[in-house]
Write a structure and sequence with these properties.
GO terms for molecular function: glutaminase activity. This protein has 304 residues and is an alpha+beta fold. It contains 13 helices and 8 strands. It has a 5-stranded antiparallel beta sheet with strand order 2-1-8-7-6, with helices on both faces. Strands 3-5-4 form a 3-stranded antiparallel beta sheet. 6-diazenyl-5-OXO-L-norleucine (DON) binds next to loops.
Length: 304
């Protein structure tokens, strides 16, 4: 497959929509990012890299971090994790509180904010400095040391994290957070503020395209069964209340973030990441979703 030619074709087709959508502004520091960025990368299991545009520019990964905190939390807890977090799409916005009351403080899935706060809580129990553990895990997956979290973005989100705080206190009242709420929110805001490029992220997800084994070293990070389940969760819950439409249009497991990144994978073949900061109303990158839709149309590589 000539992925380089395909990426060029995608950028050409997408040119009219790059810059459309709204850059996330509820985290003030994210509102300063230009909506004109567009980057895309494909990293194959054999290590081959194809990229276009701003694919090597680091951006705020935001909720894409939840994919990696889920892997880490699974490594800590195994299947016991599912006693505290569900596995169903929520059909609601990523920051919604409504289902928590009826469902006794158990979040629908690990990729909505409530679920990700429980993941951060698990990491707070396991690690003295959880955000450092997440950064180190991502350095290992991306294969280089130059990965950090942006302190200004983390502070900007922490200063305005009133809704996440409400969710966290609510879950704590049901006993579903073990650590102090402030500590969990600090860890959460910091791992959301990690910066990585499309190339870094596409490489970091290749182990999930490779049945849980890190392609470069052969190290197994998850069982094949756990990797399959994680891919299924990405497909059903990774793009929030747009997950059904995303599966319909794109047909790949994917995880998005309000920084404008969407990280997807083709099982058995490659990681694919796109970044374009303008968002559609559900919080997914507008041009990014279209780029991935075009990717599966041109390559015929969807899971269906
Ligand atoms: O909790 C928040 O609001 C952000 N740090 C992460 C949200 C996010 O990326 C949701 N994505 N679509």
């Amino acid at each position: 497959m000539d992925y380089s030619a395909i990426l060029h074709e995608i950028r050409e087709r997408l040119a009219p929509v790059i810059g459309q959508g709204r850059v996330a502004s509820y985290i003030p520091e994210l509102a300063t990012v230009s909506p004109q960025h567009f980057g895309m990368a494909v990293v194959c299991i054999d290590g081959t890299v194809h990229s276009i545009g701003d694919a090597d520019v680091p951006f705020s990964i935001q909720s894409i971090s939840k994919l990696f905190t889920l892997v880490m939390a699974l490594q800590c807890e195994g299947d016991a994790l599912w006693q505290r977090i569900g596995r169903e799409p929520s059909g609601n916005p990523f920051n919604s509180l409504v289902q928590l009351e009826h469902e006794h403080g158990k979040p629908r899935n690990p990729f909505i904010n409530a679920g990700a706060l429980v993941l951060s809580d698990i990491l707070c129990t396991r690690y003295a400095v959880p955000e450092t553990a997440v950064v180190e895990f991502l350095r290992k997956l991306a294969g280089h040391e130059n990965i950090h979290y942006d302190r200004r973005v983390a502070k900007s989100e922490r200063d305005t994290a009133h809704r996440n705080a409400a969710m966290a206190y609510f879950m704590k009242s049901f006993g579903n957070l073990k650590n102090p709420v402030g500590q969990v929110l600090d860890a959460y805001c910091r791992h959301c503020a990690i910066e990585m490029s499309c190339i870094d992220l596409a490489r970091a997800v290749t182990f999930l395209a490779n049945h849980g084994v890190l392609p470069r070293s052969g190290e197994r990070l998850l069982t094949a069964s756990a990797a399959k389940r994680l891919n299924a969760l990405m497909l059903t819950c990774g793009t929030y209340d747009a997950a059904g439409d995303f599966a319909f249009r794109v047909g790949l497991p994917a995880k998005s973030g309000v920084g404008g990144g969407i990280l997807a994978l083709v099982p058995g073949e490659c990681g694919v990441c796109v970044w374009s900061p303008g968002l559609e109303p559900s919080g997914n990158s507008l041009a990014g979703s279209l780029a991935l839709e075009t990717f599966t149309t041109l390559t015929g590589r969807s899971i269906f």
